[in-house]
Specification:
This protein has seven helices and nine strands. By secondary structure, it is of the alpha/beta class. The chain has a single domain, classed as Glycerol-3-phosphate (1)-acyltransferase (3-Layer(aba) Sandwich), CATH 3.40.1130. It has a seven-stranded mixed β-sheet with strand order 1-9-6-2-5-3-4, with helices on both faces. The longest helix has 25 residues, at 185-209. The chain is globular. The termini are far apart.
Length: 242
């Protein structure tokens, strides 16, 4: 069944791409690296992965990190039809083997695709895992995203964007983010925030160009704490301080 669903998914992506008009912004950015065989980490939000097989140059080898869950295996079968390999695992949950495979892939001169908010969120919030990999491998992180005029927003944790046929589509590449080899805690956090902000900025711009409002990230730790404090104050007020 998964093989069949993967086949259908790949054909749907091809159909959407073939029936839509696409404009690419920032294409010169990855082309600083592709012709010379210089690897980098391509970062995109989990909700924007559907059309990434057509954002990528098919002549450039890339492997994508996926989860070991059934949805991850379905993604693997789907993108396999486009010649994209996968690495199964997680960089945060006992992912030593996955980390070794990623570093080996980058050292061989191949690129890695990474969803910094996957596989379970928080939505549009970058984890430190991708930043640590960039530091260890000595390669940049290059943000990318897409949006389309005709779409469905799936009611999932990531608000997955299902592109519809006969759309006008926008693809945007962002400027690379480099992480120094000797970067410590504060510098790593700055790089994580820079990636998060840059990905959200280009995603918001892609949505604006396609006539949509900007997607809202899930609340960050500070926002969540502030929300809990406000909620506690409101509860105290309506309960008479009991």
């Amino acid at each position: 069944m998964q093989r069949g669903l993967g086949w259908l998914g790949a054909h749907y992506i091809r159909f959407v791409h073939a029936t839509s008009r696409w404009t690419v912004y920032g294409e010169a950015i990855p082309r600083r690296f592709w012709p010379e065989g210089r690897p980098f980490i391509a970062a995109f939000w989990h909700s924007r992965m559907l059309m990434t097989p057509y954002i990528w140059d098919p002549k450039v080898k890339i492997r994508t990190l996926i989860s070991g869950h059934s949805d991850g295996r379905l993604i693997s079968r789907t993108i396999g039809h486009f010649g994209i390999g996968t690495i199964e695992g997680s960089t945060s949950r006992g992912g030593t083997a996955a980390l070794r495979a990623i570093l080996k892939t980058l050292a061989a001169g191949h690129c890695i695709g990474f969803t910094p908010d996957g596989p379970r969120g928080p939505r549009m919030r970058a984890s430190l895992g991708i930043v640590n990999i960039a530091r260890k491998a000595g390669v940049p992180i290059v943000p990318l995203t897409f949006s389309v005029t005709r779409r469905r927003v799936i009611d999932s944790w990531d608000r997955f964007i299902l592109a519809l046929p006969f759309s006008r589509g926008v693809i945007i590449w962002g400027e690379p983010i480099w992480v120094a080899e000797d970067a410590g805690g504060a510098v790593l956090e700055d790089a994580r925030l820079a990636l998060e902000d840059r990905l959200n900025a280009i995603t918001g711009e892609a949505d604006r160009l396609c006539g949509h409002g900007a997607a809202e990230p899930a609340p960050g730790p500070a926002e969540a704490a502030a929300g809990q404090e406000i909620g506690a104050r409101r509860f105290k007020a309506v309960s008479g301080g009991q």
